[in-house]
Amino acid sequence: MKPIMERRNVVIRLAIAFFALSTVAAWSEPGSVASDWHEGFNNKARLVAGRATRDQEPGLYAGVDVAMPEGWKTYWKSPGDAGGVPPDFDWQGSDNLASATVLYPAPHRLHDKAGDVVGYKNGGVLFPVLVTPKDASKPVTLHGKVSYGVCKDICIPAEAELQLVIPPDVGTSDELSKVLTQVPGEKPRPGIDPALAAWRLDQSSGKPKLVLDVETAAPPTADAFVEGPGGIYVPLPKRIKDDAGKAVFEVDLTDGVDIKDLKGKPLKVTMIDGKGQSETTITLE
After folding, report:
1. 3-class secondary structure for the chain?
2. Which residues form the signal peptide (predicted)?
3. Among 39, 65, 107, 166, which is least packed by CB within 10 angstroms?
4. pLDDT tens, position by position, 156-174
5. Could you list the residue range(s) of the whole structural domain that residue 240 is in?
6. 13 located within any domain
């Protein structure tokens, strides 16, 4: 009986070891590094890091990886008309870090009972972070305090304190390189990314409206979002017309915003469609 029990214990230990190795392989790439998951209510977060390329420029990147169940969502940096919790990133306590610049993948307009919001669904989002070390020959200890909201029927604030040591010889991350292709850039790829063909401030009705003409190869899938300076609220654009190769949006600058607060200040316009994304900055005179 004893040899049988010993063999059974060996099989169990081998199965546990195989499961542990399989779990590691499922959540990390060769050459890149990742922290442990921080478990929250219906969400979890971690840091990943590796070499990646954006616009043909290689660099050192980390990523804040937020995972949620299907049907849940989290918010973009400008949450939209129905409110929400934009993500916040604090890198104090990091070592050998000159700067950490958070980038945002193209979001989507999401509909719920309270109205329209802007964010991410489908299981989660990876926020890439451009990391600049003080000394590139030494490891970077990235310490991040991250807060964000996760929502289904109600919104739940979430927080995670994450830490990851990034060695100077860290390898390439295909995952980060892939998500960097989803970050809007200021140089639209011809025939791929939507672009702002023209814009104007229409005050003919006595109510100022910002009109955006978005050039796009896929007008039915096109959308646009406008960010005000310093967190000033700007309503979500409304689609008013589709033409061949163009989608037209209108922003009501009397709806919860005073145009005086926007005059002479930069507004960032982000455009998406089914093929790509881009962003540009305009100034209302």
Report:
1. CHHHHHHHHHHHHHHHHHHHHHHHHHHCCCCCEECCCEEECCEEEEEEEEEEEECCEEEEEEEEEEECCCCCEEECCCCCCCCCCCCEEECCCCECEEEEEECCCCCEEEEECCEEEEEECCCEEEEEEEEEECCCCCCEEEEEEEEEEEECCCEEEEEEEEEEEECCCCCECHHHHHHHCCCCECCCCCCCCCEEEEEEEECCCCCCEEEEEEECCCHHHCEEEEECHHHCCCCCCEEEEEECCEEEEEEECCCCCCHHHCCCCEEEEEEECCCCEEEEEEECC
2. 1-25
3. 39
4. 999 999 999 999 999 999 9
5. 195-283
6. no
